[in-house]
Each structure stands twice: as C-alpha cells, then as structure tokens.
Design brief:
about 20% strand; binds 2-aminohexanedioic acid; Ald_DH/histidinol_DH; globular; Ald_DH_N; Aldehyde Dehydrogenase, Chain A, domain 1; oxidoreductase; 7-stranded mixed sheet; 2 domains
Length: about 500
C-alpha cells in the first residue's frame, strides 16, 4: 500500500525536503527520518534545508512575490480552486499517507484532507471578497477608504498532529491574499508535506505560477528559528506547543514582525444536570480519544454536575471498554498510536504525576504490548478523577488522558473551565437555555471557541480558529482570519480644487 502511495507522489527513499515550487533543491542540511508509528518502519529519509538552502528559498520567494501580488486575486483564487480539485482526486492517497505517517485513524486522515478541500473552496470565494470599507471624509470633495494589500512572505510552521490541514488553512488564504509561502512542516511528518508539494506543483506548472510561491523547507527547530528572526518574512504563522510559540512569538515580536500563533489547549466540556447524557458521551469520548488525544482541541477535562457524575462516569467507563485500539488504517479502529515513543514517555510520566498529585484512575492507562503493537507507540486511553488545580491538570499532555471533576453550581463550573493557562476550545452540554447563554456570555467561557451541545474538537473551517491566553491569540481558517495575512491601508483622495487640512487647521502661505 505505502509503496503505491509514495509512487503516486513521486517520493523516493531519499528525498530532498527543499523546494521552491517546481524545483527540488539539492538539500544539504540534516537528515530527517520519517518512520511510521503504526508499525515502526522507516518510510523514507529526507534531506533537510541547510542555512544556505534556506537563504536561496527566501530569495526566490521574495522575487516571486513581486509577480504574484500583481495577479488579480480571483485569478489566484482560480489556481486555489484547481488545488482543491487535485486534492479531491488525491483524497484517498493523501488521507492514507497522513494516517500511516502520523498515526491518526483512516477516517480522520480523510477528514483532514476534506478540511483542505473545504478551505480551498472557502479561499476561492474569498478571492473575490477581500474587501475594505469606505468612510466619509470630514473634508468636502474628499473620499476616504481602506484597502488590503498582501504582506509578502508568509512562513508557516506546522505541527505533526494536523500535518497537512493546518498548512492548507494558512497557505490557501495567504495565496489568495497575494502572499508567497514558505512551509516548515513538523520534522515528524515530512512526507505528507512532500506529497502536498507534489500536488501543488502540478497545478502551479499548468498555470505558470512563478517559482517561489509555494516553498518547502523541511528541517528541525533551527529552521523555525531562522524564520522567526528573518526580517524578510513579515508574517510567521506557527502551530504547536506553547513553549515553541513563546520562542517564535518573542523572536518575531523583537523585530516587530507579525506572528499568528495557534498553540496548546486544555479544553473542557461542562456536563450539566440538564445535559442529554447519551449525546454528551459521544462528544466527550470522541474529543478525548480521537487522534489519540493529540488534537489542540482534544477534550482534556470533563466538569460534571455532582447529580449526574456517577451516571455519566459509569457510561464513560463502559464506552472506554468498547474502544478498539490498533492499526489506524483498519477502519474499525477508534484509536491509533501516539506519534512516537517520546510521546509515550510523556504520557506515562503524566500518569505518574496524576497519581502523585492525588488523582485516582477510573480507567487505567498504560503502554500496549504484543502483536500489532510492535512500534511501541500504542497506549490505552485512560480516565482519572482529579482536582482542577493539580499542576498536571493545568498542563496540556498530548495524549488520551481524560480528567473528570465534579461541580455544584454553574458559576463554579465556568470558573474551573477558565482556570487553566490555555484558552482554545470549550463546551457545555445542556438543554437549559439559561445555562447555555451564561456559558456563552462575557462572564462565561474565556476560550476562542465555545460550543453548546457539541464537543471541543472537530471545528468547521468556516469559523475563525484559535484561542486566548497561552493558546496565543491568533485566528486561522474561516471568518475574517484572512486579515492577518494582509496589511491595511487607509487612503484619502482629494478631488476638490482646494487643499483643506484635517481638524480645520489653517496653513496659509
Ligand atoms: C489542531 O489540533 O491543531 O477542530 C487543529 C479540530 C480540527 C483542527 C484541529 N478541525 O479538531
């Protein structure tokens, strides 16, 4: 299976990880090894970018920008439309590669490619709607308006958990806005990035898109640091851990560049006494174990009303007993592996900390061993009863560990939901309108995403995606997130025969 997919995307056993669009550069940086957490096998090795490769890519991208920004936005949208078509044709192959290289279930692999297709459609429409406002000038014979211009190079740093979709949210919007992109994919998932580059290169060749509009620079942390410190790059969009985001954000901030940060979450669902418990169960379990708990939006905490706590946790324990953990390419499987053994170690360490800090397990965790689990990356989703203030509960562990806790009043539940450093996604399960509205009010959830009767994960692309506090404050994907990829310009035009000054100032010569 994997050989056929690699062939589809023309990925060889040793592949350059540096491209400016159609040209693959002879890369001479570190060697990255892509191995699958599914079976532990090495899929291919990738030559990462050296500093010299990186500088060559930036120079090509800078030049491409001068041409690309002059293409009418709807023409850029037409190119993105064709990328969407190419993704439709390649959905199976790319979805499977995502599943095999990253370890998420096949359905989620396809779902991720679907998000890419959806954002292409969104960006195509957007390419005719990048509009500003007009306003009334205080001076006679004057017109005032604002318009949006592209920024230049957009650097995209993406994480392993959504190895391709998050790149597409950024690049498709950045392109219709007239920017050129340089992508540093996660060093854990370089092959899916190469596959995307292959899909784009065909479309770009057919449309004579200038070399340098879609660039790839595979590499490790150093490449991200070059980008963050590079004054030739006006915007760095980074998705990943809060630690990484603080380092990127402060380097970009020190040079007064723009950064768009989408960092960790510590997402909770409040399960009210007025919740539909069966529906809540699906949202909670999918949120906690989907993608093996490796989404930014994964459900980490359930804040459950004391009157339904026993009934709901009993349902949870039963549901966890039915989970099938194994090869994610098998469509009957719910939970695949973690990304690598370091992630397993972090998961085991968190379980120890939960115990040390006073938590008790309703469903025990642990690493799985034996047939089918040879890669050493498979773990058991687990549930622990905890207190919200435990240090480990305040921390985002990228693994399927679900914390449950009790509340008495809604106010208390909302305070617990907000009392973590992160602020990405949140939800309340309730059929009570008053509760739902309080949760959504300014005194409610402090997160970028707040849902009612939906879990915390699985956001649609049409909304702005991102969160507050340590989540970084950036918004990607839908709504008016495109504005982050453009610069705003206010224009005042005088069509009168006089030059009146604003604020009524007289300046007679
Ligand atoms: C992420 O985990 O970085 O809402 C993105 C979701 C997906 C995207 C998650 N649409 O779960």
């Amino acid at each position: 299976m994997i050989d056929a997919i690699l062939k589809t995307f023309k990925i060889t056993a040793q592949h350059s990880g540096v491209s400016t669009g159609l040209k693959w550069l002879p890369a001479n940086g570190d060697t990255l090894t892509s191995s699958s957490p599914v079976d532990g096998k090495v899929i291919a090795t990738i030559q990462a970018a050296s500093r010299e490769n990186y500088d060559a890519v930036v120079a090509t991208a800078q030049e491409a920008f001068h041409e690309w920004r002059m293409w009418p936005a709807p023409k850029r949208g037409e190119v993105v439309r064709q990328i969407g078509e190419a993704l439709r044709r390649n959905k199976q192959a790319l979805g499977k590669l995502v599943s095999y290289e990253m370890g998420k279930s096949l359905q989620e692999g396809y779902g991720e490619v679907q998000e890419m297709i959806d954002i292409c459609d969104f960006a195509v429409g957007l390419s005719r709607q990048l509009h500003g406002l007009t306003m009334h000038s205080e001076r006679p014979g004057h017109r005032m308006y604002e318009q949006w211009h592209p920024l230049g190079i957009t650097a995209i740093i993406s994480a392993f958990n959504f190895p391709v979709a998050v790149w597409s949210w950024n690049s498709m919007l950045a392109w219709v806005c007239g920017n050129v992109c340089i992508w540093k994919p996660s060093e854990k998932t370089p092959l899916t990035a190469i596959a995307c580059q292959r899909i784009v290169e065909e479309v770009f060749a057919a449309n004579q898109v200038p070399e340098g509009v879609c660039c790839l620079v595979a590499g490790n942390r150093a490449v991200g640091e070059w980008m963050a410190n590079d004054t030739r790059i006006p915007l760095v969009s980074a998705t990943g851990s809060t630690r990484m985001g603080k380092s990127v954000g402060s380097a970009v901030g020190a040079r007064l560049g723009k950064s768009l940060l989408e960092l960790g979450g510590n997402n909770a669902i409040i399960i009210s006494q007025d919740a539909d418990l069966d529906m809540s169960l699906i949202g909670a379990v999918f949120g906690a174990v989907g993608t093996a708990g490796q989404r930014c939006t994964s459900t980490r905490r359930l804040i459950i009303h004391e009157s339904v706590y026993d009934a709901f946790t009993a349902k949870l324990v039963k549901a966890y007993g039915q989970l099938r953990i194994g090869n994610p390419l098998d469509e009957a499987v719910h939970v695949g592996p973690l990304i690598d053994q370091d992630a397993v170690a972090a998961y085991l360490d968190s379980i120890e900390k939960v115990k040390q800090q006073g938590g008790t397990f309703l469903v025990e965790g642990g690493q799985l061993q034996g047939a089918g689990y040879e890669s050493g990356c498979y773990v058991k989703p687990c549930i622990a009863a905890v207190q919200n203030f435990y240090e480990i509960v305040q921390h985002e562990t990228f693994a399927p560990i679900l914390y449950v806790m009790k509340y008495t009043t809604l106010q208390e539940a909302i305070a617990m939901q907000n009392d973590v450093p992160q602020g990405l996604s949140s939800a309340i399960m309730t059929l009570n309108l008053r509760e739902a509205e309080q949760f959504l009010s300014q005194a409610g959830s402090d997160c970028g995403i707040a849902n009612v009767n939906i879990g915390t994960s699985g956001a649609e692309i049409g909304g702005a995606f991102g969160g507050e506090k340590e989540t970084g404050g950036g918004r990607e994907s839908g709504s008016d997130a495109w504005k982050a990829y453009m610069r705003r310009q206010t224009n005042t035009i005088n069509y009168s025969t006089h030059l009146p000054l604003a604020q009524g100032i007289r300046f007679d010569l």
